[in-house]
Specification:
Structural class: alpha+beta
Number of helices: 4
Largest sheet: 7 strands, mixed
Helix content: 25-40%
Radius of gyration: 19 Å
Low-confidence stretches: 10-18
Number of strands: 7
Distance between the termini: 72 Å
Shape: elongated
Order of helices and strands: HEHHEEHEEEE
Mean pLDDT: 90
Length: 141
């Protein structure tokens, strides 16, 4: 086989591998995400969050789901995951305020309807173009 043919095969293989879809499951720190400057800008400190545990009070809406995605352009996986996570948390806080509630409890990761329960980490799926976080929780007064 000629060198140019071998080179063409290698180049085609590299291009195919680079364009192959990626859906990598990652776990990141909840506290690290909540303590970022971005979190301080977008989250409401008046709406308390309870990850993996029930919030005290009366549940007004059960099993609410938020599924947020963000692009990965010019971001590390961790940064894009944090942004998707904060967007999902903010959606919960906004829903709580609309319902006249002050807490969100039983927050768990819920990617593709698979529950990952943790008080310290959330699940994120990072791809070539997008990262996504899904959360499920209860709105509590």
């Amino acid at each position: 086989m000629k060198l140019s043919s071998k080179l063409g095969i290698v180049l085609a293989s590299v291009l195919i591998a680079a364009c192959a879809p990626r859906n990598e499951t990652q776990y990141h720190s909840i506290s690290a995400a909540l303590n970022t400057p971005e979190a301080k800008e977008v989250l409401n400190p008046k709406v308390k969050l309870y990850f993996g545990t029930a919030a005290p009070g009366k549940v007004v809406k059960e099993n609410v789901v938020s599924n947020k995605k963000t692009n990965t352009a010019n971001k590390t996986d961790e940064k894009s995951c944090q942004w998707a996570f904060l967007s999902a948390v903010k959606q919960f806080q906004d829903r709580a305020l609309r319902e006249g509630a002050t807490k969100v409890g039983n927050l768990v990761s819920y990617y593709q309807k698979n529950t990952y329960k943790s008080t310290t980490q959330y699940e994120c799926h990072a791809g070539n173009l997008m990262s996504g976080v899904a959360l499920k929780g209860d709105i509590v007064k």
